[in-house]
């Protein structure tokens, strides 16, 4: 009745695994007990879990991302500490456990930290930047969130019941096939990707339609903020790239469960098809992660340089060029796997070409700062740290674009250093900058700057200590994913890398302290104006946090920096002559239920509990039919309520209007 599930699935095979599982379970229980103790179940259900408000959905995405950041970093700390002490010894991690750790680390950081983080920022900001009251498909937005959470839950449950994959975050066959990985680990990995991948695909479709069809009527495409442009390009990549991941994961699952031969070494299977399909998704995924961060850097640089963004048009065209070219370079991930020299040369040249529009962006940001009155807000510090550090990763990427050099470096720690050198400053620093920048917009109070500055310095120093030694180790011949080694020359570098990981840990602690101190002192740091930085784009016209409807009247956009232009014309806060009722989607719990059913389907297929699979599929069908049959899915906010809210805000603005040029103090 329970398929493969039995008592042997519990993590008694290792004291460390049992400890990790215990911490996970206890952490979950503590959260449940606290919510119960304070009697907040009804509040969370009605105001948050069932909400279709894009801003609250965005906040929940970011909360998920921060939890998974801590979880994924614990894996990184375990790897670094294991390698630091594993010279001619077994260290403290068994080989199979070490393999689980590096597999879960990559999976969590890509799919369940970075993707939710960028999607959360997009949800909070983009509808406001384009003068919209909501996304195009609010219900789809809720489903996307809860499917992503379901995928993350599958990864977390693998800590407690069964084991996670040991085949790496890319899951290459034949090792990920049933012959070499007969346990449940790869199945957990497959279903976490399938469930969350469907949610990401729907997010891409949702924001393509939102940006193209829901922006303010007078806002032309070439008047959209850069973050909106990068979101549009990212959404296009998500809509076209994630289906490839869904297909390849489903095919691998069919190989494992039903004995198909898509990627086996016999009966007509072809393992290279797996590599091609995975990286047809995988390289666009790099830009799915990085392009939103590029948009954040554009917004932060303009605001804290107190200047109009330099080269707006070139930044838009560079973003579009990266979007197109990202589908033409996937083979550089496996130069060593047997393609002809001519094929390798074509993809190597394409890889070098895609660096050109990225270089254009770097120069535009630098020229924006040139002669600007720079304010060293924590968001700006992360941006400057990105500019310096990302260039190093880009240069190492151009080196790896040369097939002969890639043959030397492939599968070495040089490659590990390169992709972390691209993704941490290129993507994660951008998310941190966006978190610091838009936090008051989402919550209504500002973050503590001192702790933000401390977190930046520990992150940037820790990054260099953790990954620069890996470049050297790659030249010294160290392969990645080694849990032990016998070359004494390597150990000093690995000890330095472990110290770097500890510095990053302190940086994460500082971010936790920043949140704690800011929430504690929130009444002293309320953002009354909605525009704490003298911002340039439309999200700063709304209150902090914004009303459920965002805008009482749709903005009249005439220039690129629409809100800045309105302030110059003296119409930024002009009251409406009359107000109208606003229709907004009514909250629903169907998205939460569908996410729960998605989790149960993944769990049941992993453990071969087929009767539960059938019940959950029927439950999904019932939910969709029920939702489609509902007529009363919107609520009306009366014009009188909107007018009262806007008058109260106008009064607060008059009382707290900063002196000209004195917005920062």
TrEMBL record:
Cross-referenced CDD domains: Ubiquinol_Oxidase_I (cd01662)
Record keywords, A-Z: Cell membrane, Copper, Electron transport, Heme, Iron, Membrane, Metal-binding, Respiratory chain, Transmembrane, Transmembrane helix, Transport
Membrane topology: Multi-pass membrane protein
Major subcellular site: membrane
Transmembrane region(s): 12-38, 59-79, 108-126, 146-169, 189-214, 226-254, 274-297, 309-331, 343-367, 379-402, 422-439, 451-473, 493-517, 584-602
Similarity comment: family membership: Belongs to the heme-copper respiratory oxidase family.
Name the UniProt record assigns to this protein: Cytochrome ubiquinol oxidase subunit I
Originating organism: Pseudovibrio japonicus
Lineage: Bacteria, Pseudomonadati, Pseudomonadota, Alphaproteobacteria, Hyphomicrobiales
């Amino acid at each position: 009745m329970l398929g493969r599930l039995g008592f042997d699935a519990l993590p008694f095979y290792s004291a460390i695994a049992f400890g990790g599982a215990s911490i996970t379970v206890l952490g979950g229980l503590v959260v449940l007990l606290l919510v119960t103790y304070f009697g907040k179940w009804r509040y969370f259900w009605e105001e948050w879990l069932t909400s279709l408000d894009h801003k609250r959905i965005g906040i929940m995405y970011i909360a998920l991302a921060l939890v998974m950041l801590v979880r994924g970093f614990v894996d990184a700390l375990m790897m670094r500490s294991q390698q630091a002490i594993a010279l001619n010894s077994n260290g403290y991690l068994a080989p199979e456990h070490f393999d689980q750790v590096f597999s879960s680390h990559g999976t969590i950081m890509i799919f369940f930290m970075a993707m939710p983080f960028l999607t959360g920022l997009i949800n909070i900001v983009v509808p406001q930047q384009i003068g919209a009251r909501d996304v195009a498909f609010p219900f789809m937005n809720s489903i996307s969130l809860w499917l992503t959470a379901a995928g993350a839950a599958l990864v977390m449950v693998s800590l407690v019941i069964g084991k996670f994959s040991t085949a790496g975050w890319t899951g290459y066959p034949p090792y990920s096939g049933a012959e070499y990985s007969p346990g449940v680990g790869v199945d957990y990995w497959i279903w976490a990707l399938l469930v969350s991948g469907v949610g990401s695909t729907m997010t891409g479709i949702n924001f393509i339609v939102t940006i193209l069809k829901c922006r303010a009527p007078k806002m032309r495409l070439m008047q959209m903020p850069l973050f909106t442009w990068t979101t549009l390009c990212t959404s296009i990549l998500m809509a076209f790239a994630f289906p490839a991941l869904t297909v390849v994961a489903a095919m691998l699952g069919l190989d494992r469960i039903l004995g198909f031969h898509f990627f086996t070494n016999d009966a007509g299977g072809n393992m290279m098809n797996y590599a091609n399909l995975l990286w047809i998704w995988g390289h666009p995924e790099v830009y799915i992660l990085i392009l939103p961060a590029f948009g954040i850097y554009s917004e932060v640089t303009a605001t804290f340089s107190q200047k109009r963004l330099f080269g707006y048009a070139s930044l838009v065209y560079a973003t579009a060029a990266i979007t197109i070219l990202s589908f033409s370079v996937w083979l550089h991930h496996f130069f060593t796997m047997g393609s002809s020299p001519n094929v390798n040369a074509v993809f190597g040249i394409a890889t070098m070409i895609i660096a050109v529009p990225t270089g254009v962006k770097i120069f535009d940001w630098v020229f924006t700062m040139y002669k600007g009155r720079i304010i060293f807000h924590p968001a700006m510090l992360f941006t400057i740290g990105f500019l310096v550090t990302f260039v190093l990763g880009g240069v190492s990427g151009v080196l790896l674009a040369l097939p002969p050099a890639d043959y030397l470096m492939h599968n070495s720690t040089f490659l590990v250093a390169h992709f972390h050198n691209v993704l941490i400053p290129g993507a994660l620093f951008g998310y941190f900058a966006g978190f610091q920048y838009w936090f008051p917009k989402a919550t209504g109070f500002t973050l503590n700057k001192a702790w933000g500055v401390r977190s930046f310095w520990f992150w940037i120093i820790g990054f260099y200590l953790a990954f620069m030694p890996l470049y050297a180790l790659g030249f010294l011949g160290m392969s990645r994913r080694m849990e032990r080694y016998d070359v004494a020359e390597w150990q000093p570098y690995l000890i330095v890398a472990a110290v770097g990981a500890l510095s990053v840990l302190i940086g994460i602690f500082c971010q936790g302290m920043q949140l704690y101190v800011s929430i504690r002192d929130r009444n002293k740091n309320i953002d009354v104006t909605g525009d704490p930085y003298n911002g340039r784009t439309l999200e700063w016209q709304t209150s902090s946090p914004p009303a459920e409807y965002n805008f009482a009247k749709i903005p009249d956009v005439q220039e690129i920096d629409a809100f800045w232009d309105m302030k110059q014309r003296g119409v930024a806060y002009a009251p409406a002559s009359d107000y109208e009722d606003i229709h907004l989607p009514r909250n629903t719990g169907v998205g939460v239920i569908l996410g729960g059913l998605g989790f149960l389907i993944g769990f049941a297929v992993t453990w071969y509990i087929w009767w539960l699979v059938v019940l959950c599929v029927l439950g999904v069908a019932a939910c969709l039919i029920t939702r489609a049959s509902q007529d009363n899915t919107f609520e009306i906010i009366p014009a009188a309520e909107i007018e009262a809210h806007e008058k109260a805000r106008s009064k607060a603005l008059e009382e707290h209007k900063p002196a000209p040029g004195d917005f920062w103090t």
